[in-house]
Amino acid sequence: MALPKYTEPHYRIWHYIYLTICGAVFFFLIAPLFVIFPLSFNAEEFLSFSDGMKRLDPDAFSLRWYKDMIYGTKNPWGLAAKNSFIIAIFATIGSVILGTVAALGLSSRHMPYKGLIMAVLISPMIVPLIISGVAIFFFMAKAGLAATHTGIVLAHIILGTPFVVITVTATLSGFDHSVTRAAASLGSDPVNTFMKITLPLILPGVISGGLFAFVTSFDEVVVVLFLAGLENTTIPIQMWTGLREQLSPTILAVATCLIILSTLILVTAELLRRRSERLRGINR
Amino acid sequence: MSSETKQILTTDGIPLEVSLKKAEKKNKIKAFLLVAPLLFFLIITYVFPIGDMLFRSVDDKMVTQMLPKTFKAMENWDGQELPDEEVFAAFHEDFIKLVEDKREGKLSTQLNYTKNGFKSIIKKLRRASKKFEEGNYKEQIMSVHKRWADVEYWRAIQRRAPEFTSQKYLKGMDMYVNEEGKIVSVEEDRRIHRVLWLRTLEIAFFVTVFCFLMAYPIAHLLATLPMKYSNLLMICVLLPFWTSLLVRTASWMILLQQQGIVNDFFVGIGLVADDNRPEMMYNKTGSYVAMTQILLPFMVLPLYSVMKTISPSLMRAGKSLGGTPFVAFWKVYFPLTIPGIGAGCLLVFILAIGYYITPALVGGASGTLISNQIAFHMKSTLDWSFASAMGLMLLSGVLVIYWLYNKLVGIDNIKLG
């Protein structure tokens, strides 16, 4: 953002102050994430930069904590990772199916009580997690699903669907309904039309909603804390326990892996968003 | 349609109006059937359980069911003087049954909530009741302990007769029903919950203010920079947004600890002495810093999406009409961003008011919020009805904001990423 030549000096100074403030805020946002990265390669057991690390001495760095994460004795991370992925995948599938179908209904202009129903469907996103946790725990305990994978998957479907509903309704808002009418006039039944015409067009929205649902489930700790038994431990639960008891560098190794995972998800989501905007013909 | 004009018929001879209505109804049902699976799933697994919380929070059947005959006999008692023999006999009958089921301990715990001093006299009564003779229970019970002859204790029992109670809600606001049945506050130094509510509001409010002050300039920068730079900078906002909450909290724990990097830096530039490092974690400061950074993207994104739609020519027009850049900003640009400010502030406030994980890890004792108290009662004291009551009090606050949000911004205008 270059300033025009005729800018007066004191506005020029203001402009640089403004840029400095922006720089500081961006630093505040992103820098904490990059602290974890080097510290997870620490050869020692401390959570601060050792003198060796400050001198960039290769001996001060090691993969020790990554080895501990994978091969460590009585290590909970393997089971936790397995559980986290299983739960997140099933929760995503459930959220995507329920959420997409509901979004199709909600975007129909014939839908009665649209505002009210939308408010109910979005509520798990708005209601504080601790309250959702208590409520879902009461339900699962009554249904005999506490401390089971099924219970946790159902809980995460509840928390994940609002994201799918929001992203898919947003995609459908730019959807040209004449294409489905054209398909119908050519003799296609509704299911076939959906699979062949609608779904491919709204797919970016569906996938990005699915990514939100996946991340929500993968990162969710409040509700799981109420529901999980020892067998259902997940990565967030292990991190939570670890952070409460003692901050070990192994946690930082796990955290680094999670940051890499979230970077991958971010890139995918970004690419999908751009593709979706291209498909819907929104030029920016 | 006036009666003179001929009704328009479809090819099947049905009036067009009727036919259209039928089609409309069919479409409505179709749309509703698509929404139905998710709606019913949520109603069963989510909405009903929240209703269940409401029920639990006011439910007080336990004592009612333990002393059914006593409460029946008490119906005619005015509560002025000691109840007569009928009540004592009924109480004895109920009590013997409880002792047989080994449930008198539960009764004493419950009654002790209402009035202190029930625990010991119920224990004494249990021992003495084995030697009771038939008839004249009033004399016999009163002789066990002088408190049984105190009308206050019988009034305390009578107060537990209703099946529903607002006691848990009062407790959540540090109030209780005293002996005369009036609602009063607890002593000044025992008002823990009011302190928590106020602190929750305070932290949520200031986190929202900080987020707004930090998000406004960078959202403006992102919206005005050319695409190729702004896309790069957008990553700085989106990467934290997509990263696990626990990872971000962990990084703050590393940064803020006493031997941590922020303190090292302060010592390095000579701001504080090495042996006098400030405590930045396990107190309010920790909650403020970590929550502001974690919630910042939720403020930036709505602001950005609103600012993106404001044409830069408006600012130029303002300036060309003689306004200084500040006047042009204040009179033209700022008012246009108000919808974004509203959306962002409400979103951040709603999220902050219910925060649990981050305050629990970096907040210490002085930085925890109402959610931590709810979790504490769910997991440690197992007073689920109290946890439910506190949860619903929090929920009603959030729903008011949610309603406001819906009025101002509209639920369907929530944008993600």
Notes on the protein architecture:
The complex is a heterodimer of chains A (284) and B (417). By secondary structure, chain A is mainly α. Chain A has a domain at 84-245: MetI-like (MetI-like fold, Orthogonal Bundle), CATH 1.10.3720.10. Chain A is 75% helix and 0% strand. Chain A is built from 12 helices and no strands. Chain A has helices at residues 9-39, 51-54, 64-71, 77-107, 114-126, 129-143, 149-172, 178-185, 190-219, 222-227, 235-245, 249-279. The longest helix of chain A has 31 residues, at 9-39. The two termini of chain A are 18 Å apart. With 417 residues, chain B is mainly α. Chain B folds into 2 domains: 61-163, no CATH class; 192-413, MetI-like (MetI-like fold, Orthogonal Bundle). In chain B, 70% of the residues lie in helices and 1% in strands. In chain B, helix 11 packs antiparallel against helix 14 and helix 14 crosses helix 16. The longest helix of chain B has 43 residues, at 16-58. The interface between A and B is large, with 92 and 93 residues.
Features:
heterodimer; A: 284 residues; mainly alpha; MetI-like fold; 75% helix; B: 417 residues; two-stranded antiparallel sheet; 2 strands; 70% helix; 1% strand
CATH superfamily of the largest domain in chain B: MetI-like
How big is the Rg of chain B?
A: 32 Å
- Any idea of the CATH topology of the largest domain in chain B? MetI-like fold
- Order of SSEs of chain B, N→C? HHHHHHHHHEEHHHHHHHHHH
Helix and strand composition category of chain B: mainly alpha
Distance between the termini of chain B: 50 Å
Report the sheet with the most strands of chain A, covering strand number, pairing sense and barrel closure: none
CATH structural architecture of the domain at 84-245 in chain A: Orthogonal Bundle
Whole-number tally of structural domains of chain B: 2
Main beta sheet of chain B: strand number and arrangement? 2 strands, antiparallel
Oligomer: heterodimer
- Show unreliable segments of chain B: none
Q: Assign the CATH class of the largest domain in chain B.
A: Mainly Alpha
Cross-sheet strand order for the largest sheet of chain B? 1-2
Number of strands of chain B: 2
Number of helices of chain B: 19
What structural category do the secondary elements of chain A indicate?
mainly alpha
Q: Give the overall average pLDDT of chain B.
A: 85
Q: Helix proportion of residues of chain A, in percent? A: over 70%
Q: Largest interface by residue count?
A: A-B, 92 and 93 residues
